[in-house]
Design a protein that fits this description.
3-stranded antiparallel β-sheet; mainly beta; 3 strands; 0% helix; 51 residues
């Protein structure tokens, strides 16, 4: 199992910008991750639509 991150952006090619933080909330990594490389435990009922 990998680290837990927060999705902070979406790309049109089924990739997401994911932020990984330490215990103090300091960003340690911010990178694009393909959907197939993620395990998403929760999704909102409606995903936002990017302009």
């Amino acid at each position: 199992m990998g680290r837990q991150g927060a999705v902070v952006g979406m790309y049109p090619d089924n990739a997401y910008e994911v932020e990984f933080s330490d215990e103090d909330g300091i960003t340690i990594a911010l990178l694009a991750v393909q959907r197939q490389d993620m395990k998403i435990p929760w999704l909102p009922a409606e995903l936002p639509v990017e302009p």
